[in-house]
């Protein structure tokens, strides 16, 4: 491995997700393993612009593999969207002797990295970190598996208390544009209905289904709803609509919100973070740049950043069928 | 112990709570220990009216101590509020040879039992089962401790992701009339502000406090809000109001809902359930009736049902002071 | 889909694992979806021999998706290893009108199914259920992902308290012949050393590594040890050996044991179970037999039972390298 | 409140326990609330001797309420047991302007504080922090409630898999001299037998009980064993003994170990820590010294340190009876 690169930076950007700390740890330790320097950048691209750097070694990432959030903080930076902002960032990296960076984040963060790479021929690598799993080129993004477990833990608790007659529970989960969480956590939670952005279920079909569900002897039902579902109503409007049309049901709503972004990462997310961090650093050391690392077919792979940004992470249509069969 | 009573019934009534199954198990096994019969009544007083009974022995309550919900189901019964309904229930109990019952539930359930006892001189005992902890005569109701742990687990996850600037998180918890959950889980979750029904905090004071909180260097804050808080706005109206007045804050809302009523009971709730079940049965065997069993001063005690119904379970005012100090 | 088959049986066999109930539920509901009958067989092959069957419909598998263990119980059957035993089992299935079965279990259970299929041309399908992940033809067995999360949860707790000087923690995990759990949970738990059956680390190297670990500034270390590691000592003998050679260390031992086989299944395991159950039933309906369903390359696949039995499920060697880098 | 004291120190000492961080946070914030200074002392009394101090303000204890372990580290100090060591510690405190300290720990830590107070008339207060709950003068020590929940979570998982025939599970829990954990977690976990140091159950009675348990139709049993039980065998010797005498049983052992000391504290422990921290600081400000703060009869109380050290924290004998009834 040609170690032309002597110093690598790592940053987290955009919304945080469980596993980001494990990925930071992996980048830092892989640098140490290959005896190159590593600096952490606080607050994403904004911290890059402001030169908010900190040297990191194997001991500074001690005991963070199991922590949610990100010790480097995260932020969105409008300034980095301007060429002036990016020039400042470049100057800061130059001043600090940084010769490549690994950004952990989502689509937006990758777009920034991709432009930066083009403008300054600066080596960059991306690690997909978002609970939404809406990134092309990887079967799993960091935090997705953890978020699924958080959601089903909530649904399990609701199920415990769902024994009374005629109760309907609406659980709103994250996923403004992507139904991965709702679909998988809906199946995993044993939901009777799942509403996702990718599918036009239609209100009529939902009502039909709820009627049928009741006729089949179910005394209570749980409906998982992605916040960005196609029906175009928020969960409380949906509650009003269904109660107006199915007066025999009393509906209770849970809005899970940001708890889905926190918590100790699952084992899957930690191992994934560890693997992707190793790969990202070693790509830079091998002279590769402008790729996102990910998992495909159970193997660590790389995908050009541009492709990762432009491609679509589609839901597995087979799961729609599984969901339908399971709610028979 | 005079065993004039030969058969005892047990039922769960009203909203369910974690620990009810553990209490059912305890009643059943205490009966077996004293070699008297035990029957379970399904669906609360409604099942009593309909004679929906099942004989229960030590093995039928195997492996339920750790389960949320109630294997006997629970329901509210309008019919039991009429003297005709209660007469039917009495006839069913007579027919089945039941000579006393233990009801696990809240205020409403105890009121039913108290009236029934008066009307038919029928031996009854109450076990306080509700997550709200709003029952006089016991420091803890079944499920309260579990609910607190559920809430702080959610708040912990939100805290993980609360590192970005200027974020405010509103977490709505249960407690329509009582702030026990909000106050204790607010302290336990490290909330910056806690809004409870018992206190007129006032919107102005909330705004002041949030401004001060920010000035003191906190980049994010978590506010725990009981669903029945005195401010008279629901959590989304509150969000709109605060955002209008403190435009520098972006507010995210979580509505925990019924997950607070589910989940495996905590060790405290299981031990409590076991102790109260023993006491309830042994009171009946000793000829006592019309009491609620509870914990006071770390000891199992009994309180006349009427007193338990009429008394008020006040929040510990000292905790308001602790909460204030903790959010310095 | 030709529905020549009218009745399918499902059983769990061998050691249980989280997700088995979710798989039972899936088999039952898929049968219902395709309007064919389904019977559950209690206690594995022994129950098959004894005709311990129960008809199952969509509602009988209500609320089991989140339960550990198996509602059908599991057992090992010596009698089924004899041709007399298998003949009895065949007669029972015939008598009950069962025309194919799905067995959820491991290698041993598949071997039984494979022989049975040969002897009686009886349609069988296998679903891999074991926490050890030691089955060829699938990237994940049911329960493996859950067990990993259970183990890292324990390691996280140990890590909390590992702050004092010179403490060494040995954590023994399951895996008599396969190091999947130790390797992945070791990486996920941030263990300093991982001992697995597949690798001859050697005691000398362990001692070296622990010395180096200390020299590098780590005040405490966690070592994850598979019960079947190559060193040939049990965890307490290993403790004595290391303490004798590295007297500066005080060693504390945790033996996790069977808790690794229990607990609510993770979302991954529940979705996996749901998908595999659908596939297993639909294979039988399509006239396929003698296959194991599994996940490979993120897709549901089938593998001939014989191949699944004879093949080896190797650990991912790349993970050994990741583990080494992470403990730098 | 007379604020003659201007600066208070806080330290954690002895074995750590969940809730220690919450108590540190409370001490620090209560100081800030009363506008006095606060310093943290690292590594217990050893750090006091070495002057390993750090100034602490409300923001330095941000986000630690939910963390296991102790951010101030803990250690045992032989030097502090000598008068020379204590003199050094006193000089360090004087140099730093510290006028009183709060020590969070167990019996040993209190003994040190008590002697120190006598020798130098130095104001000290103790907060009981240990999972064992073996301290006189408080119904709960910090970490005890959390440890109970950790143990029953493990037992629940074991129970899931305990469905096969003739399996016996031995679970060893902490408690060298005190059976509080074993007794309460045994009841909460639904254990069939509980072995604690305070009771001479005797091996014969254990064998009898296991035989009876089986005869009563239980197919599997869980036995919770405190590490310091009176039988004088370790858990593996006990396994060998029982298997030799009851060959029909196959015994599986779990040794939970230090995981019992870690984990996010329960809500109870966090609220307790917050209350005790406030009281400890305010006692010092009121000129009180040499007391332990604790909870008795649901109220915060103070007990002279000497009494806390010499008194015995007995198990609640009523619970032995409850345990017996529950395993009917």
The CATH class of the largest domain in chain A is Alpha Beta
Give the helix proportion of chain A (percent range).
40-55%
Q: Kindly give the count of domains of chain A.
A: 2
Mean pLDDT of chain A: 93
Largest sheet of chain A: 7 strands, mixed
CATH topology (fold) name of the largest domain in chain A: Rossmann fold
3D architecture notes:
Chains A, B, C, D: It catalyses: beta-D-fructose 6-phosphate + ATP = beta-D-fructose 1,6-bisphosphate + ADP + H(+). Chains A, B, C, D: It is found in: Cytoplasm. Chains A, B, C, D: Its main location: cytoplasm. Chain A has two domains: 7-143 and 265-310, Rossmann fold (3-Layer(aba) Sandwich); 145-261, Rossmann fold, CATH 3.40.50. In chain A, strands 3-2-1-4-5-10-11 form a seven-stranded mixed sheet, sandwiched between helices. Chain A has a four-stranded parallel sheet with strand order 7-8-6-9, sandwiched between helices. The mean pLDDT of chain A is 93. With 328 residues, chain A is α/β, with parallel strands linked by helices. The longest helix of chain A has 19 residues, at 267-285. Chain A has helices at 20-33, 44-50, 83-95, 107-120, 144-160, 180-188, 203-215, 235-245, 267-285, 305-310, 317-326; strands at 7-12, 37-41, 53-55, 101-105, 124-128, 167-173, 193-195, 220-226, 250-255, 291-296, 299-304. At the A-C interface, helix 1, helix 5, helix 6, helix 9 and helix 11 of A face helix 1, helix 5, helix 6, helix 9 and helix 11 of C.
């Amino acid at each position: 491995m040609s170690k032309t690169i002597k110093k690598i930076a790592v940053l987290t950007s955009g919304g945080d997700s469980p596993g980001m700390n494990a990925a930071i740890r992996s980048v830092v330790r892989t640098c140490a393993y290959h005896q190159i320097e590593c600096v952490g950048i606080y607050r994403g691209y904004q911290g890059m612009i402001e030169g908010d750097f900190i040297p990191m070694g194997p001991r500074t990432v001690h005991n963070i593999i199991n922590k949610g959030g990100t010790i480097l903080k995260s932020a969105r930076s409008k300034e980095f969207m301007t060429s002036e902002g990016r020039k400042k960032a470049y100057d800061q990296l130059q001043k600090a002797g940084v010769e490549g960076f690994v950004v952990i984040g989502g689509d937006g963060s990758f777009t920034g990295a991709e432009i930066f790479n083009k403008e300054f021929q600066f080596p960059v690598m991306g690690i997909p970190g978002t609970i939404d799993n809406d990134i092309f080129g990887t079967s799993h993004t960091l935090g997705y598996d953890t978020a699924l477990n958080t959601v089903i833990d909530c649904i399990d608790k609701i199920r415990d208390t769902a024994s009374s007659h005629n109760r309907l529970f609406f659980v709103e989960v994250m996923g403004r544009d992507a139904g991965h969480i709702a679909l998988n956590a809906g199946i995993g939670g044993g939901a009777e209905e799942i509403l996702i952005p990718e599918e036009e279920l239609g209100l009529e079909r939902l009502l039909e289904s709820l009627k049928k569900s009741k006729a089949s002897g179910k005394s209570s039902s749980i409906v998982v709803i992605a916040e960005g579902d196609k029906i175009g109503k928020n969960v409380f409007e949906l509650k009003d609509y269904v109660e107006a049309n199915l007066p025999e049901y009393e509906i209770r709503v849970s809005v899970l919100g940001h708890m889905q972004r926190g918590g100790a990462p699952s084992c899957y997310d930690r191992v994934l973070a560890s693997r992707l961090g190793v790969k990202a650093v070693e790509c830079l050391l091998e002279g590769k740049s402008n790729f996102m690392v990910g998992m495909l077919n159970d193997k660590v792979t790389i995908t050009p950043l541009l492709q990762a940004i432009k491609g679509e992470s589609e839901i597995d249509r087979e799961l729609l069928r599984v969901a339908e069969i399971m709610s028979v």
